[in-house]
């Protein structure tokens, strides 16, 4: 028996016998149990035998299969000329772990079939469980791998399923349903997680919210094709699972070769969805590549699009420096012949027409203004109208006449020559220019059955770039939020949450993306008043309040903004610089609301000394006078000075008088009162937001 415990979570494995170990319990901590108690519990959990079922008690192992009598989705599927019915025997169980994680490595074999399986489990000090399977071909012929899935049991009370869907500029849309009999499965065949990625599959007690209920959640830490599911069967326990989604025949192992499946990240919470973030955010921060405060970014895309020249960009550089920007990023349009999105992708040489002296004059101007420099690239893609595609059509993934997407094809990074070319060009750019940051884009689905090798090659490419240039930071962008996962996060320092800067869309997108990814990774930009992607017009105050929470930036030609607008932007940047230590280290809190038109979220310092909350109206409220807003997460034993935080521009309200405490400018109340009773808030118009700051006074 093996019992792993951390941060209120228990994982109990029955490793007795000669077969595949099984999970007896994963969830709330069971407390310290003696060896005798562990054995008694495992024996007591053997279920009854049904008169119309297998003639021994059903037992869910870590690799459930037909051989065990499991008729649900199997974990492992391998074949030679036909499917191989594995009979795995336990070779050994050993303790493992890395850093502050405790772990177990389970070694299994079917010598007759020529297959070894190694299952690794790690439970971090934050209570995050990681699980993966590795398959090794010990036979004398090729072994096909169709699936190596993680399957874990959840209790019957986990009867409601939450996951996500979406589309370009509208990512991470939540969807819920009751888990009936059968399988709820979400598959991604985009060659990237995609805008409609399930992202996080959470099975919870009915009605679970941000601050209440039990939740068992799974996230696939992989940047290619994947599947997550929940399954309930009358013939066995309910389960959740995840796996890389492999195309038929995509993965074949030569004798002696191995396949390491991606990690599935599993999280239990007895404090609702916020409890999931309470475990994931500190865990991600424990291995994060981020080493410095997140600089204020200005990205040139929605400011100038493809219109590049030193003369065009100099006023923008000067305006960026004036308001306090710290990083200036040159987006698409800088390379040879790139006048629109139909040509030149893949020709990674600075355009001599737009930049006769290279990028040096622009970078010198940026550096002289006190900013560092970033550059947009899309290394995995190619236009057919490009020098590289004309010279090397064999580098294009799939058929050369296959359908294009944004007028581009995929460059086959698994081709060693294509890989070398892309690395050489990135290496040359980073060697010639002082580039601090790459915005790494990926603007189309693969639409080819090569996601495994392409994703593996992508990881090798990013690793090679970072090894050669360890100081460079990388943002994962995939036409916005199409590749946001914990696999890519191990190799990057930022994710572009969505291609929309519309604050109304961003309120929801950022809210749900932050369930898994900490705010310091979430790129959020202040856009122009009329959003590029929706045509909706938003007030400056709403745009400022929304873009503050995350890794803040600007995507707007502020050289064309009014002096008053630039003054407000400068004040907003000053607030961001003052508060980013809190925003990027504290606990994210999302109060549950009875009115879907009102959303609130905040960040509370780890020591409870300070907090910052946003209160936004996305639509007309259900009541003329909304109920007081509660502020959970504060220390209930401390008293807080509560004050409005104004970002330098007025918020549109629909009230004859503000709440008394707001008019007074502050109020002092205990964290218990603020979390349970709350405070009345201003009657803000739809598509507006206000900020509130909390400072402990004792």
Describe the structure.
This protein has 3 domains: 2-287, Beta-galactosidase, Chain A, domain 5; 297-585, Alpha-Beta Barrel (TIM Barrel), CATH 3.20.20; 589-696, Golgi alpha-mannosidase II (Immunoglobulin-like, Sandwich), CATH 2.60.40. With 698 residues, the protein is an alpha+beta fold. The chain is built from 14 helices and 36 strands. The protein is 21% helix and 30% strand. The strands form 7 sheets. Strands 5, 6, 7, 8, 11, 12, 14, 15, 19 and 20 form a 10-stranded antiparallel sheet that branches. An 8-stranded parallel beta barrel has the order 21-22-23-26-27-28-29-30, surrounded by 4 helices. Strand 5 and strand 6 form a beta hairpin. Helix 7 (416-432) runs parallel beside helix 8 (451-468).
